[in-house]
Amino acid sequence: MSIDPGVTPRARFVIMYDRPSDVEAFERHYSEVHIPLAKQLPGLRRYTVSRDATPVIGEPYYLVVMLDWDDMEALGAAFGSEVGNRTAEDATTNLARYTTLRGMVVRLDDQ
Question: Which residue of 48, 62, 63, 99 lies most exposed, with the fewest beta carbons within 10 A?
Fold first, then answer.
């Protein structure tokens, strides 16, 4: 993962996790397996994690994660890659046993 200060990311994948049923097991797997795997996603520019998100409307999430790419095509290529498939499978198989997770893809436009 390399960050080029001259490139403004235009695509983001946002994942929100509810509080895990087993916080210790979730955190261990997330930090030891999932993050290193996700950081191998092709074209990934930035990986950020927020543990202190304050809700304005609705209930708080335990964890909010944002992954940035240069554009929607790069994000799509990353998701369609072998690493992308392994990362998705890890989330739906291993992380989902501890928590509910939600994800969305957003295109970033300056206004």
Answer: 48
